[in-house]
Amino acid sequence: MGRDKYSKGDDLVKKEQGTIVKDWGGRLPVGLIYPNSYYIGMSNLGIQSIYRILNSYADVVCERIFYEEGMLYSLENLCEINEFPVLAFSVSYELDYFNIISLLKQSGIPLHAGERNEQHPIIIAGGPCIISNPVPLSPFLDCMCIGEAEALVPEMIDVLTDNVFSRDEKLEALSKLPGMYVPKYCKGGKIARQYLSKLSNVPVSSAVLSSETELGDLYLIEVERGCGWGCRFCMVGNAFCPIRFHSAESIIEQAKKALEYRKRIGLVGAVVSDHPQIEEIVNAIRDMGVGISISSMRIKPLYEAVLKATVESGAHTLTLAPEAGSQRLRNVVNKRIDEDDIMQAVEKVAEFPIKTLKFYFMVGLPTETDDDIEEIVSLVVKCRDLLNTKLVGCRIDINVAPFIPKAGTPFQWMPMADEKTLNHRLNFLKRKLAPLGVQVKNESVAWSHVQGVLSRGDIRISELLAAIDNVSLAQWRQKARELDIDLEHYTVRKWDTDEKLPWDFIDSGTKKEKLAIEFNRALSLDL
User: Fold this and answer.
1) Rounded to whole angstroms, how far apart are CA atoms 463 and 461?
2) Which of 4, 131, 160, 411 has the most C-beta neighbours closer than 10 Å?
3) How far apart are the C-alpha atoms of 349 and 98, rounded to whole Å?
């Protein structure tokens, strides 16, 4: 094959702006791996930020690697994955665990950390999944980062660039740093999540731009981090708390610099519209003559300036997330909105010429009944009728995701609904709403159950991951039977709040007792 096998990497880099290419001489090479496609990974602001941070060190060279067929090499210098002395995974989604295992197997690097020696790279991982529950991947990783890169990287780099330390000595030194989980040297005790108390000195924005990505026409800028609303199912509020904001001045200054590269700005965060100066920020960016896209808008408050700027920037679809159809269930999940708030938001949306209003709902939420599903239909019909009186030609679509219990949340003890129940409720929604012209899209029920196993997984699930050769539901279930692993234990079983959880050694900053109080408070609302 010769150099032909590198042609795809060459083609991708030629279409980029901002690529950082360094000579390896005298530097520590780090392979930064996003275990999914380039198209998805390059729209992830987290990996862009880490890429910029690592390359800011004069004695480090960081190159990107993605999970693409036949691409076991970096983009910048086309170096094979096993040539790097350090590999760093950024893990955002549980289903990407399969890609991590596959990539390691293909690379020839021993899959299990205990089988590696001085000739093998140190393999590190971080990201939301690692922060919440690192256990299912722990046998395959030498070191896991519990917290935010900005708070962890400086001390970590000091250890990794030390040419005197052996591989094992580096791992032992890493294990002594705050927020670093090194299974080989873990002696028990809590590992405290590390985070920045303020974001004021660390602007986060696109490092490399390419049209070959999901958000290729946007220059991304982080507005805030964390969430303070306290939805009981949500991992973000716990893994990235407390909520912190970049200053309006910093965001606006980054937007000015972005004009050199893009005509549209993407404002990123879990709750972008919560920024106390969001209207000032949006108006300032619009005054620059560029378009704007916002990753998340709450139903309450919903600012007219934000809506106006989004639509004027060419958006034909706006998205709102009621999560549940009934007020009882919204109270159970602590959504902190009521039906009047939803209808008022729809009224505001109807003032603008959009083509589609999209709603996000969840099915299988704790305490959910068929009546709650019927209330989704009722709510959607009310919203559609209101839209029809004010905005001719606008349709409503809904996206539906099965509830998955997440580690470190008040609902970590809650079960998923079984597959039969979830399919029944999804089919009911489609049967009732399709004749009304409402399109219902849903995530796979079966794969959501796989995700549920990985989310609440313990060390036994690592055995199952290692056993998978060709990723499919059939093999997942077959290998679980061969290993005598009860998958339903991790999904449809309700766990007791006093039992030991696999991830209890992670100190997220929120006490388990507080999570249990919220759990019991939710159940007390099941009226």
Assistant:
1) 5
2) 131
3) 40
Of the candidates 269, 222, 268, 224, the residue with the CA atom closest to the CA atom of residue 243? 224
CA distances in angstroms from 88 to 14, 91, 155, 193, 371, listed in the order given: 24, 10, 15, 18, 46
Residue 85 gets which letter from DSSP? S
Share of the chain above pLDDT 90, in %: 91
Residue 149 Cα to chain centre, angstroms = 15
How many residues appear in the chain? 527
Is-contact 401 441, C-beta < 8 A? no
Kindly report, as residue ranges, where domains of CATH 3.30.750.210 are found in the chain: 217-315
Residue 517 CB coordination number (10 Å) = 13
Give phi and psi for 222, each to the nearest 5: -75, 130
For residue 511, is pLDDT > 90? yes
Reduced to 3 states (helix: H, G, I; strand: E, B; else coil), residue 183 is helix
Q: Give the 3-state DSSP-derived string for 206-270, with helices as H, strands as E and coil as C.
A: CCCEECCCCCCCCEEEECEECCCCCCCCCCHHHHCCCCEECCHHHHHHHHHHHCCCCCEEEEECC
CA dihedral of residues 20, 22, 28, 33 (deg, nearest 10):
40
10 Å CB burial of residue 467 (0-12, 13-18, 19+) is: middle
Q: What residues does CATH 3.30.750.200 cover in the chain?
A: 316-527
Q: How far apart are CA 23 and CA 350, in angstroms?
A: 55
Of 28, 203, 7, which Cα lies nearest the Cα of 124?
28
Contact 30, 62 (CB under 8 A): yes
* CATH annotation of 316-527: 3.30.750.200
Hey, what CATH topology would domain 2-192 get? Rossmann fold (3.40.50)
pLDDT tens across 385-412, in order?
999 998 888 999 999 999 999 999 999 9
| Pairing between β-strand 122-126 and β-strand 143-145 as defined by DSSP bridges | parallel
Fold of 217-315: Transcription Regulator spoIIAA (3.30.750)
CA 401 distance to own-chain centroid: 15
Helix (H) or strand (E) holding 107: helix 97-107
- Quick one: 176 exposed, middle or buried, by C-beta within 10 A (0-12, 13-18, 19+)? exposed
Please tell me what DSSP assigns to residue 509: S
Whether pTM > 0.85 for this model: the answer is: yes
Q: What is the pLDDT of residue 4?
A: 75
Within the chain, all domains assigned CATH 3.40.50.280 are found at: 2-192
Q: Which helix (H) or strand (E) holds 274?
A: none
Instruction: Answer left, alpha or beta for residue 526, where phi above 0 means left and psi between -120 and 50 means alpha.
Output: beta
